[in-house]
């Protein structure tokens, strides 16, 4: 695994998750993050390693060295890591985790029904291919 770059693990068939990945690629001017869809070999292996069921994924993961973030902590860390103005999202850490995670899980469980599901995994533009695992 590449060191020094947090890895965002996401569901590449989920429209919401793919839109978030595209947003990160567009706004991560420091090129800090690497992304791995669960449909790929590396993403699938990392999801399994951290106990996420590939048949019913219920979270996004951010792996930053030895630290693994999930649910709302993962989302907040992603946006806080994008720099200004997105780092304002870090203020959401003041909301109790059980409240944030309850809202996160409600959306995660219903993401296909609300936002849709892709038939194939989303692929990045050629200039961002080096950021995908």
Q: Can you walk me through this structure?
A:
The chain has 133 residues and is of the alpha+beta class. It has one domain (7-124). 38% of the residues lie in helices and 12% in strands. The protein has helices spanning 15-27, 41-49, 71-80, 97-109, 111-115, and strands at residues 7-10, 34-37, 61-64, 67-70. A hairpin with a 2-residue loop joins strand 3 and strand 4 (67-70). The mean pLDDT is 90.
**Total beta strand runs:** 4
What amount of the residues lies in strands? 5-15%
Radius of gyration: 14 Å
Q: Span between N and C termini? A: 9 Å
> Helix proportion of residues, in percent?
25-40%
Overall mean pLDDT:
90
How can the largest sheet be summarized?
Answer: 4 strands, mixed
Q: Could you name the ranges where pLDDT drops below 50 across 5 or more consecutive residues?
A: none
The class by helix and strand makeup works out as alpha+beta
User: Would you list the SSEs in sequence order as H and E?
Assistant: EHEHEEHHH
Counted up, domains total 1
| Apparent shape | globular
Quickly count the helices: 5
Strand order of the largest sheet: 2-1-3-4
Please render the helix and strand layout as text.
Layout: E1 7-10, H1 15-27, E2 34-37, H2 41-49, E3 61-64, E4 67-70, H3 71-80, H4 97-109, H5 111-115
Parallel strand pairs: 1-2
Antiparallel strand pairs: 1-3, 3-4
């Amino acid at each position: 695994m590449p060191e020094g770059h947090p890895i965002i693990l996401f569901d590449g068939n989920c429209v919401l998750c793919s839109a978030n990945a595209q947003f990160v690629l567009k706004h991560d001017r420091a090129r800090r993050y690497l992304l791995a869809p669960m449909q790929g070999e590396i993403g699938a292996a990392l999801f399994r390693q951290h106990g996420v069921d590939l048949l019913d994924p219920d979270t996004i993961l951010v792996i930053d060295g030895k630290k693994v973030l999930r649910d709302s902590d993962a989302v907040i860390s992603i946006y806080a890591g994008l720099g200004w103005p997105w780092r304002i999202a870090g203020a959401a850490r003041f909301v109790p985790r059980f409240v944030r995670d309850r809202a996160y899980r409600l959306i995660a469980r219903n993401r296909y029904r609300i936002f849709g599901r892709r038939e194939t995994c989303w692929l990045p533009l050629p200039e961002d291919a080096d950021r995908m695992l």
